[in-house]
Design brief:
about 200 residues; alpha/beta; five-stranded mixed beta sheet; 8 helices; globular; disordered C terminus
Length: about 200
Amino acid sequence: MKALIFDVDDTLYDQIQPFQKALEKHLEVAETLLEPIYIASRKYSDEAFEAVNSGEMTLQASHIYRLQRALADFEIEISSEEALTVQADYSRYQGQLTLAPEFRDVFAYCQQANITMGVITNGPHQHQLKKIKSLDLFRWIPQENVLISGAVGLAKPSREIFDLLAKKLQLIFIISEILLIMMLSAVLMPVGNLSG
């Protein structure tokens, strides 16, 4: 293995925690609904992602959209103002993230074994950078090995963003020697499985 490429959200930290804290601060929601609401919000966020990237929808409008739609799925109504208040706290809590403990050992092993590490993450540049800094990733992964879709104009699962990182890392792009690590549910995917 020559390189490990990590995603950030729901890979290096549990993304539901800041969402749950923000939601519980402003709404009375049954604990059993927190995860399903979060999953629904991710679905609606994914729907809005392309519209935001293409300029058809503002980032602020996408925040309102995903939270209102997710809550509506569970017959909970929230105003646009309330959605933005929840989003503000969600964003603040995302700046207080904790790296999943197993990754400290993974990073130390990779450094010892001279395995190149990189990050590819989708989202607005400053927002994703805040999370990366909160997780203290630059302690292990050089900043030049990090690609944020909002900064480079490409997004996963596009093959071009992986090619760009391979070029930055000066790797000969041998698909079988690069592993993409995504999702807290331990999905390990050889880069050769990407669309493109």
